[in-house]
Write a structure and sequence with these properties.
- Helix content is 44%, strand content 21%.
- By secondary structure, it is α/β, with parallel strands linked by helices.
- The chain has a single domain, classed as Vaccinia Virus protein VP39 (Rossmann fold).
- The protein has a seven-stranded mixed beta sheet, with helices on both faces.
- α4 (62-69) links the parallel β1 (52-56) and β2.
- α3 (27-45) packs across α4 (62-69) and α9 packs across α10 (207-223).
- The longest helix has 19 residues, at 27-45.
Amino acid sequence: MSEEKQSVGNLYQDLYAGYYSNANPTLLKREISAVQSVNCIIDAIGDRTPDRLLDVGAGDGNVLLQLDARAVSRELYAVEISTSGVDAIKSKQLRSLRNVQLFDGYRIPYPDKHFDLAIAVHVLEHVEHERLFLQEIKRVARHAHIEVPLEHGIRIQRSIDCGKKFGHINFYTKETFRSLLESSGLTVMDCRIVPSSLQYEQYLSGRSKGWLKNFIRRWALKIAPAIAPWVIVYNAYAYCECG
């Protein structure tokens, strides 16, 4: 990859280097979030059990932990950009994990169509060259499951300001998310908007306030599905064929 394409990524190396250390205060938050993400993956793939599943940008392995515990795939593989993430994944000693490798964020060290399913859970919002990233997923997998936060609404400046400390540099609506996938050569089979789980909201906001926020998010999406994501942050996931 050219130096020009790597230059923006170098600005974030220090941010991600120790991002997945045990001292990171977002550890429990990521564990809770992983449960919901795997629920979405299971919902998307239905009764199709992949033989080989690759987690691209696997972080500290909390999604892999849930996938392993729930036997979603016969074999799990992972690539991750940070050494702290790779170390955290290895420390989990997952039964179905066959390999975890450090990668540069774009070049996945596997042959064409090696995986039945590749997933990228809350990764795309961090990626400088989104279509290069998605085209590489398309190359190595037959199907893809991509999940992102929908943060591009009337409070976009707040999303930009709050996302800086986490390395969020891309912001999506459902429409721009789907357009990005399709313009990267993926065929979107299913694309859904989901609110954060009750457990996640209560972790962030406390029992009562968290329940209220979850209630508002769910009912706003049900009553006004076109308007709610423009006002409130949700998550979106897409299940795609890679061609």
